[in-house]
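User: Here's a chain of 503 residues. Predict its fold as tokens.
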Amino acid sequence: MPTSYVKRILDAQIYDLVVRTPIDEAPQLSLRLGNRVLLKREDLQPIFSFKLRGAYNKMLSLGKAELAKGVIAASAGNHAQGLAMAAQKIGAKATIVMPTTTPQIKVNAVKALGAKVILQGDSYDEASDYAQRLVIEKEMTYIHPFDDPEVIAGQGTIAMEILQQVPERLDAVFIAVGGGGLCAGMAAYIKTVRPEIKVIAVEAEDSACLDAAMKAGRRVRLKNVGIFADGTAVAQIGKETFRILKDTVDEVITVSVDEICASIKDTFDDTRSICEPAGALGLAGLKKYVGRTGAKEQTLLAVECGANINFDRLRYISERTEIGEKREAILAVTIPEEPGSFKAFCASLNKRNITEFNYRMGGASQAHIFVGVQVVSDDDRYNLVADLGDKGYPVVDMTDNEIAKLHIRHMVGGRAKEATDEMIFTFEFPERPGALMKFLTRLGDRWNISMFHYRNHGSADGKVLAGLQIPRKDRKKAHVFLDDLEYSWAEETENPAYQFFLS
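Assistant: Prediction complete.
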């Protein structure tokens, strides 16, 4: 089955617009992991993403009549830019429907290439539905971002280049997956030409539609899709891409937000390039694979597939990097409320570097401190927690506590005796101008807001930690009310981060 794609890939006449991107060594990461690590630099395409390959290859396959109608696509950004540039090259009109949550840098880039942009819906799927309506109403030619043979073949040219550039031993290739076009095209070529090379698909944990499909043996639609890695935030793997991937992928690895952030930093350290979250998925999967298998002295390649990122997102990414790299432990520690106790605690760390320290007096005899401590691995973190416990310090490890990392670290010390009947909730809503005000309006004034923390991270979703004073008799009604808000929410009243520092 993949054999038919090899001819399509070899026949792709895209190189009057597409760049044959280099493969860079990653010397620092190679030394640290004990393997030869290579990066395929698709961030160096004219649109800073591999998506130009598939979009242009598809456009070249269209007849004059189809081009005359104008082309349309739904995209979170990179396919949009690829199609806009391809249309500009050919001289066709392009319309792009983008989710309202699309980073502004991608919206501006598409407009600069001469395409018409329509912002519609809060997700790729909503944008896609609207684009399909326009196809019917205006008889435009639809260019699918991933589930099209010509698009898949265009993306597969990356694999052709890799096997030409690395003719010697290559043990595994790590490829980001959203809808699956990139991975399907590459896997079809690699498994036909050099089947001994492992093809490993990598997804964000909160948008792992291929992993879900592989486990179910069929395509499934995710109920919720996280959009930190917005370039791969797809609820369902493509029909054609899954037909290819189910027989050609050796393994699917899922990675966390923290692991993605750490890989963005690793890429920067070795190449001085800054990739977008989806662009770092391949490397995050590579690192996780090495950590799990103990692979040594192998040649491993990750596709750095995109670099379209809003600059203000880097603040959030940098905060999460050290945790993702297993180099920081976030701890809640109880120390005596007495002179010299902070100094004694620091001495007990045995010269470890303190990366963060938050504290405010909260009682007469004990103090709860929120502290970040430098470590070198998860095992080192576990040993630190055990060592502090042996020295008499009650410790709660909050390194994996999302509430602690996103909110509590910015709020430590804010206690109020008047905050009776307080319940704690997290909310998520699409991040766009006016979104916070819209959220507050829908939340209404039914119950008093006793605590509120929101911080714009430059990402596609806004995250709020809120305290509401809800009498016990109203709590069942409150859950019904919150469900009707149509925002993602969760109760966090018993979360230890809240209990330690704000309760």
